[in-house]
Amino acid sequence: MSGEEILVGYDGSPDAAAALAWALDEATRTGQTVRLTYVFEWLTVGGWIAPGVAPGAWPDAAARQQVEQLVQQAVTDAATANPGLTVRGEVSDGPPALMLQERSAEAALLVLGSRGHGGFTGLLAGSTAVSVTAHAHCPVVVVRGDTPTATGKRVVVGVDGSELSLVALGFAVERAAGRDAPLHVVRTWAPAQWRAQGFDPDEAQAAERASLDESLRRWRESVPGLTVTTEVLAGNAASVLVEASRDAQLVVVGTRGRGGLRGALLGSVSQQVLQHAHCPVAVVRER
């Protein structure tokens, strides 16, 4: 697999179809190859499971063929609708989260549906999406089937000054510029933290804005045509980003911010945004 490929976790579910559509849309701008990966998981007790395939007594050649036909049809349909793109498909055996994590090491971007076949309907982001997002080796975009791509709407990114949030900022700048979309940068701060250091709210607000402006200076100089708006306010970062996602085509966050626990691979803000955002969410980490 080339490092320039966009990898799509595909199981035939509506959310997976939405993820594929998002990936194809991205590839039309970047020229990258899109590769569909269907992970075929066998159960070790009394039965077997394969997303999108009718259950059987035990894995057999017919079941495997059914999966391969599903993937090939999706590849054919995608390639026909996008004649300028290279679209490939593959079927792998093993636990979906683990296999996708391993495959992400060789991809430029991994795109997932928020829930696949077998997901709990009460969860906006399923266990596979959350696990892969936490452990992937490349940026991960999670797409819900009921949140179609909204071309022209802004790209939103959360920046708190941490190293990972600055990586997320760079990712967001690239996506906004490539889509000719405005970029909205959000920074929140906790009043209690600043009061403990003897700052009043006005001083804290000014300091946070100055820090954000410094983070943006490089990008404003290197991408002068990009429309950038900023929002600095006291409050809960996840809540602010979820609200901002209502009129966004993409929300970008780092895996963890400056307040995250060092041992946590996916911070609380990222998890809340994944669960509640109204548009696709990109979670970015350093490779």
Could you walk me through the main structural features you see in this protein, from its secondary elements to its overall organization?
With 287 residues, the chain is α/β, with parallel strands linked by helices. The chain has two domains: 6-143, Rossmann fold, CATH 3.40.50.620; 154-284, Rossmann fold (3-Layer(aba) Sandwich). The protein is built from nine helices and ten strands. The chain has helices spanning 14-30, 61-81, 96-104, 127-135, 163-178, 191-196, 201-222, 237-244, 268-276, and strands at 6-9, 34-40, 87-93, 109-113, 140-143, 154-158, 183-189, 228-234, 248-254, 281-284. Strands 3-2-1-4-5-10-9-6-7-8 form a ten-stranded mixed β-sheet, sandwiched between helices. Strand 2 (34-40), helix 2 and strand 3 (87-93) form a beta-alpha-beta unit. The protein is elongated, with a radius of gyration of 20 Å. The two termini are 17 Å apart.
β-sheet strand percentage:
15-25%
Radius of gyration: 20 Å
Provide the succession of SSEs.
EHEHEHEHEEHEHHEHEHE
- Quickly give the structural class: alpha/beta
Family: Belongs to the universal stress protein A family.
Protein name: Nucleotide-binding universal stress protein, UspA family
Organism: Micromonospora inyonensis
InterPro entries: Rossmann-like_a/b/a_fold (IPR014729), Universal_stress_UspA (IPR006015), UspA (IPR006016)
Offer a quick outline of the entry.
The protein is built from 9 helices and 10 strands. It is an alpha/beta fold and 287 residues long.
